[in-house]
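The following record pairs a protein chain with its ligand, NAP.
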Amino acid sequence: MATTATNRRVILKEYVEGYPREEHMELLPGGEVPLRLKGDEPAGSVLVKNLYLSCDPYMRPKMSRPLRESYTAAFVPGSVITGYGVARVLDSTHPGLAAGDLVWGLTGWEDYSLVTPPATKFLVKITHHGDPAGEGQRPVPLSYYTGILGMTGLTAYVGFHEICEPKKGETVFVSAASGAVGQLVGQFAKIAGCYVVGSAGSKEKVELLKNKFGFDDAFNYKEEPDLAAALRRCFPEGIDIYFENVGGAMLDAVLLNMRVHGRIAVCGLISQYNLADGERDAVRNLAAVISKRLRLQGFIEPDHKHLYPQYEAWVLPYIRDGTLAYVEDVAHGLESAPKALIGLFHGRNVGKQLVRVADDESE
Ligand SMILES: NC(=O)c1ccc[n+]([C@@H]2O[C@H](COP(=O)([O-])OP(=O)(O)OC[C@H]3O[C@@H](n4cnc5c(N)ncnc54)[C@H](OP(=O)(O)O)[C@@H]3O)[C@@H](O)[C@H]2O)c1
């Protein structure tokens, strides 16, 4: 059995202004790395072989020159890009992880990663992949741990159930609704007995929302000259819950259409991520927060990691019995990762964008 392997790596070449391009990143051929720990790593280190990588919008703000404190540190030009992924443990001195285990969590955009403390606290052992599927039940693909069973899924769960506090019969609007988080929020809202409308950026995505994910209604925001009027058409009685993924003009239009005591979970503002400080959209209708007594609350998934076991136990039966539909957009090979990431900011992904890096014996 080989004791070393070639480790290709994707690095950030330079800080990004405006929209990211493939040239901002580079795939380096890399050198030989040992497939076992050498012994001089910090105690609790884990050496992994990366199998799947997740492309996430939050990676764009990390590509900007750090101007102010953020909850997540900027990438360092010349260094490997980090992100969520699914990996096989090759060697470990971490008490909870052993060679052969599968994990999801923070890793590197490379073939093999050495994860050292404190980053190891973001590695979660995968326990349900490979469970025998019961009669009429669906198996749980390993790739799901980049999305519905990983950071994306917990984000949708926390944002909708904990922040929005939905009640049966309430009206829910979701933007970027066909994406990784949005497709889940819409379906969680249906499970909760809500009326759900989504917006997305193409006819194909709108069809997906209505015909695959079970949204009650959907519209293509790019074809609506007046977003506030589109929302009035879909919600004649107003919106109780807005799951905010995009910001900008959509947020302003939503504020005009919220009902009294409505809740807005601010999950992301992707329409603003590629704009410089002076270019970002102003929110003009903020007075609605007062007049309608709205609750507008931002949140980040890492604050809620302790809810993962609860979330996993809740969502697995819905995956297995087919209640939840889940669409992935899979790019193949580490070399395709930069293009796949950039595609998020042009709406090229349909569903959860991920990259398959290597085959695994369990698949
Ligand atoms: N708070 C947290 O902890 C947390 C965790 C995960 C994600 N998020 C946030 O959640 C949001 C969705 O993330 P995701 O992973 O599910 O991504 P995603 O929706 O799968 O992909 C991004 C989508 O955003 C839409 N988009 C891109 N540029 C846009 C623009 N200028 N205006 C409107 N829509 C635009 C595109 O869809 P269309 O074709 O429909 O335009 C694109 O496909 C992001 O804002 C992300 O930052 C937050």
